[in-house]
Amino acid sequence: MTAPADNPLVTGRTAGSPLVRACRGERPATPPVWFMRQAGRSLPEYRAAREGIEMLDACLTPELAAELTLQPVRRHGVDAAVFFSDIVVPVALAGVDVRIVPGRGPVLGSPVRTPDDVAALPPLDPGALAPIVAGAAGAVAQLGTTPLIGFAGAPYTLASYLVEGGPSRDQLRARALMRTDPTTWAALLDWCADVSAAFLMAQVTGGASVVQLFDSWAGSLSVADYAGRVAPHSARTLTGVRALGVPVIHFGVGSGDLLAEMHRVGADVVGVDWRLPLDEASRRLGGAVPLQGNIDPALLAAPWPVLADHVEDVLRRGLAAPAHVVNLGHGVPPDTDPAVLTRVVELVHGWRSPVI
Question: What global pTM score does this model have?
Answer without folding.
Answer: 0.97
